[in-house]
Description:
Blueprint: H1 4-32, E1 36-39, E2 41-56, E3 59-63, E4 68-71, E5 78-79, E6 84-89, H2 92-116, H3 121-143, H4 150-168, H5 174-195, E7 199-203, E8 208-211, H6 231-239, E9 248-253, E10 258-265, H7 266-269, E11 277-282, E12 288-301, E13 304-311, E14 323-339, E15 344-346, E16 349-350, E17 357-359, E18 362-369, E19 372-383, E20 387-392, E21 405-409
Antiparallel strand pairs: 1-21, 2-10, 2-14, 3-9, 4-6, 5-8, 6-7, 8-9, 10-13, 11-12, 11-14, 12-13, 14-20, 15-18, 16-17, 18-19, 19-20
Helix pairs in contact: 2-4, 2-5, 3-4
Amino acid sequence: xxxxxxxxxxxxxxxxxxxxxxxxxxxxxxxxxxxxxxxxxxxxxxxxxxxxxxxxxxxxxxxxxxxxxxxxxxxxxxxxxxxxxxxxxxxxxxxxxxxxxxxxxxxxxxxxxxxxxxxxxxxxxxxxxxxxxxxxxxxxxxxxxxxxxxxxxxxxxxxxxxxxxxxxxxxxxxxxxxxxxxxxxxxxxxxxxxxxxxxxxxxxxxxxxxxxxxxxxxxxxxxxxxxxxxxxxxxxxxxxxxxxxxxxxxxxxxxxxxxxxxxxxxxxxxxxxxxxxxxxxxxxxxxxxxxxxxxxxxxxxxxxxxxxxxxxxxxxxxxxxxxxxxxxxxxxxxxxxxxxxxxxxxxxxxxxxxxxxxxxxxxxxxxxxxxxxxxxxxxxxxxxxxxxxxxxxxxxxxxxxxxxxxxxxxxxxxxxxxxxx
Length: 421
């Protein structure tokens, strides 16, 4: 027993020394850097859950005809019944003739406008502006990697330049332009007759939205078949995609409503009600929050429930969507995000003689303004693990705003304190 006492004493002294060193280091750090700051920024906290599922649409698959196919509709473009979707050429010569026809058609339109121009300075300025705007649009589409209307934008640049040249070219009189217009019309008529037998137009059998993508789900996942889905069968469709159909040239989405069938945790699905609205946050091509209707809740297998949502908005932006992981947002809170250690509770100020409350108790932060501290009162909206989302109390130029600097650590803070670093 006696031999153990010196050992215990040594351990206790060692622990005391470690604590003393830690306290001294912390105190020294406090003296060296008595105040710490951070920046306030706008923040939105969501009560949400991730949902994995498939987009469902009513679609008509368009078989690819034999020959050289040229699709003339852009992705997501609306097409009326009987309107052209594609051209089919018998051979490469017929394809070249069609390109020449399009060039001549554009020349006719440009020459007709050139003949009607007044030739004054105002017309010249407008044509110059058209050339500039067409080039700006083309450049913007290239920078954003948006090639859906690339052909039309390139033609717009060419059209504007040619229009300027026809109207104000050197030595071109009104008679010259009229003669050139008549000659071009004759060439167009002859070429159109010659190529008519070698080119076939493919038209829309019914109205819809055109899409180039045929992924194989069109026949197995429809608005009717989705009502028989279970969490297991939906997951099997997600895990084993049908694969693109190479024998088709595209499809027409023929309904105005599109759906999203998703597997949700049972607890999250229980918070939904059929017929009510829900907010789904899509990424990728759609990249926005979409308010959708809850069409069906159930069935449930284990801890997962199948839920079907519907919407009649953004149909032309969803043509390429199929598998999606979205965020189902139940509620959102917006405000300013601050660290929890920055929030301070200032006790009420009371007159010791009369007991009158001079200033009520308040909750807020100290901001650094022109080297001095200012107390900004706040209310808590919600909280995370290490932060609060807050809103300022009151209005005016002195309330806390995004971008302000606040103190997260400091000793003896009070309004108007001059901080020296």
